[in-house]
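Hello,

Our lab assistant flagged a job as stuck in the queue for most of the afternoon. It eventually completed. Since we weren't sure the result was trustworthy after the delay, we are filing this so someone can double-check. Below is the sequence as submitted and the structure that was eventually returned. Let us know if re-running is recommended.
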Amino acid sequence: MLRVITKDDIIDIFLKGRQRGIKFILSKFTFSGLARTQSAFNETAKQSSNWWDIPSVRLRWNEKITGSENTSYEQYLIQTVLSGRSELTLLSLGSGTCEHEIELAKYKKFKRITCVDLSASSIAEAKAAAQKKQIQDIDFICSDIKELNLNSKSFDIVLFNASLHHFKDVDSLLSNEVINYLKDSGLLVINEFVGPNRLQFPKEQIIRVNEAIKLIPKKYRRRYKSSLYKRSFSGSGYLRMIIADPSECIDSISIMSAVHKYFEPIIEKPYGGNILMNALKDIAHNFYDLDKEKKEVLKELFLFEDNYLLNNHSDFVFGVYQKKNIKKPIN
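-- returned structure --
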């Protein structure tokens, strides 16, 4: 059922004003969808409290993806699929501040890494980070993918890290641009939200998120930069999703079917997020530094989500894929 506007929408508008300033709110009052998307990733984007900022959550991702809390997906990729390979070229579409691309560049397996993003501020931050770490074999392009002028079949890897769900018509993107850029033996790597379009979660999932919120003591439910406490979750309204960022989860539900249509999985690891993302939104800062009690709260939340995933598809997936009908071995 489509939710046009919800209680959470009102709270979120208030919080965004407190966290990111009135200038950010005013940036949404434009008919330009591109401008609204770019403003979602400007320099104030870090002024929030999201589940992915919790160190224990990141360790959980590592364990579910790689089998070890201490092994990141970048290390896992290098040690498994890319073992024995070198002089690789990688294209990252929607690269943001290039945290993952810069990490991969440190392994010296890459001849060149090319990062593409719409946000000028994200590209500028990425350039500064690469320069600080003295990484030179990496290019940064601020551009829409439709305006790129790159050679076909010139990349060993195309990477989408939390960006593919921002693209309209995923099927067309993969079958045209992505396959065109990849060499015949090339790989598609995704680390993505693959849940409902526009975050229109089913009623049962919202019920379970609210059950999870009740597991969190009130003192750990104070919202970021606010005196408000998180008491419930009603989901995002469709209208606010369009206004805030027209690209957000625009075709996320199609990602897995489109990927499987054109690519064969080499590695595919679901890692949840169905409960944690929404239960911890705006209150994640309470769990950055952990004591014994907070550890127990997170442990209970993790178990709650694991039980939910026994009978439900994961909202987040890490995967490595090769083109269909390509029989060349991958060493």
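-- support follow-up --
The delay was a queue issue, not a problem with the job. The result is valid. The chain has one domain: 7-323. The longest helix spans residues 292-309.
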